[in-house]
Amino acid sequence: MTAMAALPISTPIPAPIVTAVAGLGAPASLADGANGWRATALRRFAACGLPTRRLEAWKYTDLSSLQGIDFQPAAADLRLADDHPLPQLADQPGHRLVFADGVLQPALSACTPAAGLDVGRLADWLSAADAAAELGAAGEPSPMVALNAALASDGLRLSTAPGIAVDRPVELVFIGGLGEAATASHPRHRIELAAGSSATLIEVHAGGGDGCYLANHVGEITIGEHARLRHVIVQTEGATAYHIASRFVSVAADGRYEAFTLTASGRLTRNEVTVSLNGPGAACVLAGAYLLRDREHCDTTTIIEHRAPHTSCREVFKGVLDGASRGVFQGRIVVHRGAQKIDGHQLSKALLLSDAAEVDQKPELEIYADDVKCSHGAAAGQLDADELFYLRSRGIPEEQARRLLIEGFLVDVFDEVTDDAVRAALFAHARRWFAAPGGPQR
After folding, report:
1. Structurally, how many domains does the chain consist of?
2. Is residue 423 in a domain?
3. Which domain holds residue 95?
4. Per-residue model confidence as pLDDT tens digits over 414-425
5. Is residue 107 a part of any domain in this protein?
6. Is residue 398, in this structure, part of any structural domain at all?
């Protein structure tokens, strides 16, 4: 794995724009200038600033607390010990990239060359001028994505040849909060599956210390005809971590995208997914669970666009909220004109374990075709007192009875994960949340 070649610096950056990104992980060298697409992204972010609750898409999530923190990029020579314990989901990943506060850890990473598979760090790909131009070609639709484009330096680059089945998972591991100073990183990932290929991508995000950090991820995913990507994300960030992730997925005819996200800690988490189903037979499944306590905040925002007939989607999200935590689900399914024979399903449910916990759910259907089958629903409630009494009357202690009911509420959402071993590992993560100090309160 080679170091990233320096990108050409061609455009001076006005001081007000440099000031706009100061304290958000911008390197000191930014004041000297930036190349064309980074400069464009910088101007876009400076014009918009951090998203506020005045924006409809950010109505329930407040980023104003970021303004009081001076985030710096991690030192480029940050290195973990070779025997540093790694959080992981796959027992034997085929390829692994490990990042500490956004800095690649070569000694802990391994990408073995394989026929028909190109997997490695984005920095190597960015060193080519034509690739850099392509990265910024599509524009940056939101302020946090623009900020990522302006400051991204590394991440995952994965592509397959037609018809290739990647038999072992590709794993990304991100460890944050390792230093005393607040740090920010802006990883960017590009995944391209060619026609008829398939792969599994696993992301594990974890806090490695008590430091405050911002992780602002952007993923660009292209799935070709008859291709399939399974994408599993586990977020067990530190107690003072801000995790913001934006994914943009394009699915061609008869392609399939399956994603599951488990969020089990972190001060503020926002997972935003935009999926475009572009050809007949394209399908996606978005599912996940969020487990919150104290004053944790998790926002799941999804947009699924049916742009072709005979496409389908399924969304299932469930949350368990304790303490004064807050959950958000905003899901929108859009059926465009001419996209007939659509099958879309959306469901969000939340279990509130505390009177101080809060959930905001906003499912939406936007339909411009007349031959479709779409449904959506949302519900929130507390543990059923009668069910709890029944279990206790059978001699089950109250704490165990509560846990059984909570697990029963969650179990079917984990069934959306088709891999048995990964499903078991995800549910084990959820059970550790129950067993942690400060577990579900009475």
Report:
1. 1
2. no
3. 15-382
4. 999 999 989 999
5. yes
6. no
Is position 344 within any domain? yes
Q: pLDDT, tens digit, for every residue of 45-80?
A: 888 899 999 999 999 999 999 988 999 999 989 999
pTM of the shown model: 0.93
The 3-class secondary structure across the chain, one letter per residue, is CCCCCCCCCCECCCHHHHHHHCCECCCHHHHHCECHHHHHHHHHHHHHCCCCCCCHHHCCCCCHHHHHCCEECCCCCCCCCCCCCCCCCCCCCCEEEEEECCEECHHHCEECCECCEEEEEHHHHHCCHHHHHHHCCCCCCCHHHHHHHHHCCCCEEEEECCCCECCCCEEEEEEECCCCCCEEECCEEEEEECCCCEEEEEEEEEECCCCCEEEEEEEEEEECCCCEEEEEEEEECCCCEEEEEEEEEEECCCCEEEEEEEEEECCEEEEEEEEEECCCCCEEEEEEEEEECCCCEEEEEEEEEECCCCCEEEEEEEEEECCCCEEEEEEEEEECCCCCCEEEEEEEEEEECCCCCEEEEEEEEEECCCCEEEEEEEEEECCCHHHHHHHHHCCCCHHHHHHHHHHHHHHHHHCCCCCHHHHHHHHHHHHHHHHCCCCCCC
